[in-house]
Amino acid sequence: MTVAAAIEAFLRHVAIERGLSANTVAAYRRDLVVYAGWLDTEGITEPGQVTALHVSAFVRHLATRAESPLTAASIARMLSTVRGLHRFLLEESFVDADVAHDVKPPKLATRLPKAISIEQVTQLLAATDGEDVQQLRDKALLELLYATGARISEAVDLNVDDVLDLDVVRLTGKGNKQRLVPVGSFARAAVEAYLVRGRPVLSARGTATPALFLGLRGKRLGRQNAWLLIRAAAERAGLEGHVSPHTLRHSFATHLLAGGADVRVVQELLGHSSVATTQLYTLVTADTLRDMYTTAHPRAR
After folding, report:
1. Helices assigned H by DSSP within 205-262
2. What are residue 220's DSSP bridge partners?
3. Is 61 annotated as catalytic?
4. pTM higher than 0.70 for the full model?
5. Main-chain phi, psi angles of 170, to 5 degrees
6. 19 falls in which pLDDT band (50, 70, 90)?
7. Is 174 designated active site?
């Protein structure tokens, strides 16, 4: 078996048997194309020729290559993909050992999620006010993102049937895992207005589709277009700095925890497989409390 054939077998496995999303499989493919290219320069054409030393050398190469060296986070992600490949090859008896098992990724600095304040969220959402069909759609999308903490891919993948009685939305996350998330009154009103006065107009411009959020031509709204409309809303709101779809997800979690929500509940709402990921948001809340204490307490400074 060649390296290229091994990669194709792995990608089929993660797509079909593990049910990973098309976006995740595409990301795995990009990582493994880089890995296969490097192995080729080393004269390695079969998975059985790869050793732990080769995998370690690949990691060093990613950090030190002359053209676009990767950050520690990007290297860790790519190594995770490579480890998944070699684990699969061992499990399927294509090789005799998992040579990537003990290769460690570079140490990552703790990077805190970037949220915006409640006042800034209000400004952002107000920037989509209006009765135009595009404004109704944008309002519904942004309100839903902030109300549910959904990833942008989860939001644009929603179908009309995933909005259950307007009170609950069914989100399909990583690995096709579904979760039910309640929808607050503001998002509920925005989605209802869009369904009644906005979506029918957009739907008439294209062929029938179950998609909840539609583009101006009546097709399912894409991730890139959703990102652009959020950026445009942030500019209209006068918000400085980088505001992305994930900013609303971070803000959702941070504001819930600051309001006293249990971290395990937030974990379920976000669809995190590990509570450790969710606990990063508690560090943000703790930093805010520390700043407030330092400012307000007479003996804090």
Report:
1. 223-237, 245-258
2. 214
3. no
4. no
5. -100, 110
6. confident
7. yes
